[in-house]
């Protein structure tokens, strides 16, 4: 017997005493309440879990505990029995218990006292009270590893919104995309192994893929155990935390075994729970595989089913919530999955179907599930009491004796109602075609229910598509939504396209593109802003955007953060792409009005309200489309590192090569700033993939046409900031692309200028030295190769402006400069400068002018600061500036007579730097260039090595100096002893005084007074012998040489070797990449070498300064004409498609991919073989059923023949053989699917709904076969109900006393009340009329006003649906109608404008509400001119055995759109009551009206020959 904990007031300081902690858990991130829009009236706590990092299970931190401890007792209660009333029953141990089921000592102290004031009768409403709950926190299952969940004990009267608030706010659960309520047998049952595996895998798959919550009973038995084991198997097979599944168990607190371990007034963090099935008795243990538990308490013990009402309310509340994710707002759908089960399960299914919840019944699981599954495909008329009795006797063979005749009738009625709603019922059969997986069956059930749901127009399809996107099930979307049943316009898909982009669902983006979505129409400025507004907060680009907005706010000195605009995005993109690109989105001028016409951050793609669809439903003047929508979407995907999305969008791009290179650049720049190493690796990998895509496209282009491919390299791309593919590749350092043969061929072509690349270098040098040779055929020009003649000046100009010639002339000039400089330094350096030295100064001045020109040359208008930063990024420019500055410093000293010698020294150093500059010249050489790169890399290694070496040198030098020499005060000798001598020791120059053997006192100064000798080591005063410890200095020397000579030097060699090997592998690529800089430099350099270059500078100065001519663009750019550019891009796009197809073919031919495909096919084949076995069994059963049918028909024919023969006297009845049982057909079950829809039921259906509308009265169950009064039904004992309408002047008495009933005159006019039926005379029994259509399960008049017929009038006002041009719209070759419908106050459904007729009135009161008084007579004339389509009984939910509705339906049709009466009707409708909603609605069978009104519409559409 479990012991219930007492309610005790516990102070916070006593927390550890009451609930000792069992471990420290890390703190969680706080979360704001504003993230959730639920529970407006609750006392809100200040802590929760960060929305961006919520998990199904998370460790409870100290702040979370404190807030949970304070919030839960204030908002969540439990129930306690406050008074002990002795029960006639005893406990399991034979002890006296209270009526609540608890022992006396388990009550509160006051509860054990005699109930003096409350009487002896135990009343839960008086004897049970609510108080703060004492059981909540974390639950840990002892002995089952680290399985930890959340739990709470709640009162059975707890509002569902409070529990939902707890789950989403404090437990950190994301709102679900789907709610799966699993119900069925509460006791353990046996399932077929294959069916069990299919169920487990399918349930977990649908929960994982859709982000669903699974709700069960939470105990470790029956269907709950099956669900728990399914989740357990998934967790064991899943290695990542993202695979956790939210499984919520809602159980009764009073039936939980070992629940006393969960009682902890200040919360259990965690509470240890022992799962003990052996000793649980009649109670139940909680299932360890559930993640959350809601334990419902009604103050009783041992009573099951207490949680069902609260579970139903909670599921209904959750299903009414709207979840917004990725721009899509959906009502959370709910589905009920049924396994096995008993009577309680049948009630659950019936309630679910009644509430419109789709149900999935798993056939083969047993009991109730199998009963419903076996009759689900039968016509309702075939589901009889006898059939249900036969099914129950087979499937409930152990408990069949408990089924009374009344129970059989109730079960038959409920099963008939369940099967009647076929659109909500899905039977999962193992082996059924198209339903191999439970997850598919569950999702198909939801779609089938949604598709058959009543709706106005197309919003039902929208809802289904939103569900598919929210669940990320593109397979379901393809098979269930994008079918021939509905034609999707591309514009209809724009909102869900935005949602798929934001939610990162590339498969859906691909699907929508296949369905015709045009990015040119989809991407507007508003859409782009909306997309950037919904960037993931964890995205680095998002933080950079926020930084830009913050800077703008600080710049404008505003208090409010500015709204995001595209020029903010452009600002960040320019930082990533480099300043060589122009802004992609220009900043709007202040005089311009904002492009956005609605506040985008508040737009939601909602099912009911305003949505993203408004972005695409504007006039053409208000919608601004972007220049390149594919580029915009591609950038948006790339900055978030969304690989699949980026690849799909890139495949749509036109300027694909530039797009790929730009994406590579953006990703590499973002990777530099990204802190997460995994994200950095992903970004770099994606950047490499885009580089390979660019290389692949360029390779195909180069193979087709070299000249056009090279144009793609230098074409100015307007879409990508007026840059070129080559510039993008260089900015991104895409060495593989730049080293491509086609790019190198282009660079070589540029290098040779107008010369033919076939000319040998020796020819060029020869012509440089003897330029008259140019007029011979020694040099070939490219124009001459194309047979175009060239003049003399043209040849001369073309030769000397070629970059290769300019380069060679500059080399010759530079070598001349160095030779002259060396001659002056070594031979001709006089106190007064000679003419040679003045020539050097002039030469240097020309070099300074050239460097200045390079610094100020700004053809792209970047600005001086940016040009300076770009200039100083180049290492060789830094070296040039260093050499010039050193030269100027030396020149300054040299011109001062007192510093002549220091000036010469400084100039000598400048000469060294000028010589180092030669290495840049040699980078053009394919032999020397790579070696120079290796030397540069090794220099970096040397610097790192020197740091390690300095540690050993300084440490040994200081120790040596301190041991040998006492108080050396000369700084220069300190440096020598500590650093210089220690450094030389590495190379073998060991100081002689380091040991006493080679010590010579003549080589040192005893007192340190000799400036040319070091100070002597420590010596004795007698014989001047050293006294320092020689053994120590020798050991230190050996260790020093060991670590420096052997370890560090070999480490340096190893570093050099590694660098050499690493660079050597990519030397060719690196050299080709760096070759571009040299070629571009000399391509834009003036042709004359220094010092003659000053003439070019003078010419440039005159042109720019005096003539004000713009700068000439020497960069490798080419602006094409529009037609030429369009043709070039089309050609590139065509070859890109070829490249993508080739890539797909290669992937298919890949060995690993082929192995995977074969393995998948083998799995499918094996599954089909298994299914074939099951199907063959089904075929045999079908054939046996068909044979039984034929035998029965034969038996009937033989019986008729024998009866005919006997009637003619051929035989006596005694000789009549028994041909066959007439009951055989009653028990026959048709298992074939795909039957046509049933005809209209012969009996009223709505009038037999078990729950009578507007009350809590339940009808007596009446199966179809017991409806007619002529059929004997001895069990029939319906309850009586008559409502009292206080607002009605005329109504029959609600008492069924004979005295009051005898005053009523039936089948005639009773005063103003017409009690005559359109169906003739009706029977009257015991003073009460009998419903002419049969039993309804309820006596009295219900909510109707009168006994007998209650007359009504329903005008059906219609018109043709027309296009804008006035033509009638047709569907399936039939004209479509529009019908006038209304929604009355306090009603959730739409109806025809009509209703009950008051006594003496000709128009219904509801119709008068719609029309103004002056139009009533005219409308009566319209009714007289109309056509009567129905006159008689109306199947209404308010009908009873003694009162029913009879109506006259009149069709009022306006055939002409200019009908005067219709226009007058519309005008009077516009002035009606504002609380009413009236509309013209397209007539369709899915129109959401009352079911009986739909029958009237069907008759009208048949009458007019219209579509229905």
Question: In what range is the share of β-strand residues?
Answer: 5-15%
User: What would you call the shape?
Assistant: elongated
DSSP strand tally: 30
Helix content class: 40-55%
Total count of helical runs of at least 4 residues? 48
Characterize the biggest β-sheet.
10 strands, mixed
**What radius of gyration results from the CA coordinates?**
47 Å
**Distance between the terminal alpha carbons, to the nearest Å?**
64 Å
User: What topology, given as strand order, has the largest sheet?
Assistant: 10-5-6-11-9-8-7-14-15-16
Give the low-pLDDT segments: 1-60, 591-623, 1218-1239
Structural class: alpha/beta
**Mean of residue pLDDT values:** 80
Defining traits:
alpha/beta; single chain; 6-stranded mixed sheet; 1508 residues; 10-stranded mixed sheet
What does this structure look like?
By secondary structure, this protein is α/β, with parallel strands linked by helices. The chain is 46% helix and 10% strand. It is built from 48 helices and 30 strands. The strands form nine sheets. The chain has a ten-stranded mixed beta sheet, sandwiched between helices. Helix 5 (193-210) crosses helix 12 and helix 21 (629-638) packs parallel to helix 23. The chain is elongated. 36% of the residues are buried. Residues 1-60, 591-623 and 1218-1239 have low confidence and may be disordered.
